[in-house]
Amino acid sequence: MMSHETELKALMLASLDGDAVSHRALLDQLSRYLRAFYKRHLDRIGRGPEEAEDLVQEALLAIQLKRHTFDVETLLTPWVHAIARYKLIDYLRRNRALLAYLPIGDHHELAAADDQIAVESTHDIGQLLNRLPTKVRHAIESVKLEGRSVAETAVRYDMTESGVKISIHRGIKALAKLIGRETRA
């Protein structure tokens, strides 16, 4: 029987080679891991499963956008964990939650980033965002990219707070579908 790491890495490698079935299986397995990770951490600070689900979608989107940065000679799970942890830290900062609940982890979580790749990824996400309805795009850009609160975004774009949250949730799902279509193409 293959270990969890071995199985996930095999799916990632096949996904990087363009295997859509392996890519879907990888995302399905990672979403279960990420959901448990976020629920465990958010439960400690009294946050609900809806917020965990939003973080799962954000992390999967980041994994999709940054998959070209994965070093095939290293382990996959520390790379995924680092992305998940950074998304959690961003969430805690946006919501002014205490960072004391977040374990530091080990040094294997840290990975160097290529500035040019970051610029290219930003351009790619910008093109994808332009394919979303205006209100959805504004909500995602304001909260997820600019770091504004849901309340600030609601006032800024004349929306309700729950409207902003719903727009973000639906927009991230739509982005994941768009990325999936581009991966299969």
Protein topology:
Layout: H1 4-16, H2 20-44, H3 49-66, H4 76-94, H5 115-129, H6 134-145, H7 150-156, H8 161-184
Helix pairs in contact: 1-2, 2-3, 2-4, 3-4, 3-8, 6-8, 7-8
Describe the structure.
The protein is an all-alpha fold and 185 residues long. The protein has 2 domains: 111 residues, RNA polymerase sigma factor, region 2, helix turn helix motif (Rna Polymerase Sigma Factor, Chain: A, Orthogonal Bundle); 73 residues, Arc Repressor Mutant, subunit A (Orthogonal Bundle), CATH 1.10.10.10. Helix content is 72%, strand content 0%. The chain contains 8 helices and no strands. The chain is globular and about 50 Å long. The two termini are 33 Å apart. The relative contact order is 0.11. About 14% of the residues have low confidence.
Low-confidence stretches: 99-123
The class by helix and strand makeup works out as mainly alpha
- By DSSP (H or I, 4+ residues per run), the number of helices equals 8
Query: What is the count of distinct domains?
Result: 2
What is the C-level CATH assignment of the largest domain? Answer: Mainly Alpha
Order of helices and strands: HHHHHHHH
Question: Major beta sheet, specifics?
Answer: none
> What's the Cα radius of gyration?
17 Å
Which CATH architecture of the largest domain is right?
Answer: Orthogonal Bundle
- Examine the coordinates and then state which fold CATH places here, giving the name of the CATH topology of the largest domain: Rna Polymerase Sigma Factor, Chain: A
Q: Report how far apart the termini are.
A: 33 Å
Strand content: under 5%
What fraction, in percent, of the residue positions are helical?
Answer: over 70%
User: What is the strand tally?
Assistant: 0
CATH superfamily of the largest domain: RNA polymerase sigma factor, region 2, helix turn helix motif
Protein name: Sigma-24 (FecI-like)
Organism: Nitrobacter hamburgensis (strain DSM 10229 / NCIMB 13809 / X14)
Keywords: DNA-binding, Plasmid, Sigma factor, Transcription, Transcription regulation
Family: Belongs to the sigma-70 factor family. ECF subfamily.
